[in-house]
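batch_manifest entry 22 of 60
target: Cupin domain-containing protein
source organism: Arthrobacter methylotrophus
requested by: lab member K.T.
priority: normal
notes from requester: please return tokens only, no post-processing; we will run our own comparison against the previous entry in this batch. if the run fails, retry once and flag.
--- input ---
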Amino acid sequence: MHAGRGSTATVNIDRLVHNVHEQGFAALDKVGINGQHDQGLVSTLISRDLSGSDDLCVSWGRILPGQHHLCHHHPDASEFYVVLSGTPIVHLGNSTYRAKPGDGIYIPRGTTHGITNDGDETVELIVGVSKPADWQFVPDE
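--- output ---
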């Protein structure tokens, strides 16, 4: 290893590597403006608490057929989605977009966004947020 290019310190692999199939999923728990419940599942893979990350959070998201991830925004963080399967409607600002597997979608800080799975296939996606934890979720519906 070249000097200044990294560390040869011992790392805790158990803290740095997490597997979605071993961790499982938790239901989204946010509430909308009129008391409606956010829908979908999430498995956090990289975060401040899990990995010691100081700059990002990465999760595996799952939106089942008929579910809607509430439109919301983050005033303090940007976000991205990478669609792995399914063809959800992605709400971005005042536009909608029919996503497909392989799409990378960037959501700038403050932009309203959400997902509707109006299809018969489960939507699987990788979700990243530019903060490791404690970002604000502000419902827009």
